[in-house]
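WARN retry 2 of 3 for item q-0093 after timeout on previous attempt; input resubmitted unchanged.
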Amino acid sequence: MKYTPTLTGLATLVMAVGIAVPASARDGAAAGAEVDGVIVVSGNTCTWTGADAGATPPSALTVDRSTINKPGGNLACGGGITASLNNDPAFTFDDAAGTATTDVIDLTGKQSFVSCRYKVTNIVWNRDGATRKYVNTPFTATKVSGSFLCPGSFSAAAGEASVVFR
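OK item q-0093 returned
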């Protein structure tokens, strides 16, 4: 069966929503304490604001999924897509190398009656200068469960996602 671009876009959007974060930070927020996010894939946008990070980089930290997912968070997607993070991703930092690494990102997305769950491990992020913005290196996410209509995996090129800790 041939996959439609919409389902491929759903898979990519599902993975990226858990990891993409804009460069702007709200005034007055403690550095490293919160994460806002936005990603646009195939014309659909997912955003959230005010997700909790467990520490301030370069200390190892965990992002609390309950502050991203509804009802505790405000994750919202366009294009009829709903998404949720299934784990609390852990980040470690190597300031000398200018990198961060995420242990596991596990996400589920749903569009209409199609639900897809994907997991990726050990994503490496390159820091943007002296900021706390990090840009992803290429990665491939593997389908964990879901409809036969979901692609078995999908890849993200370098720079298709970013994270900013504030």
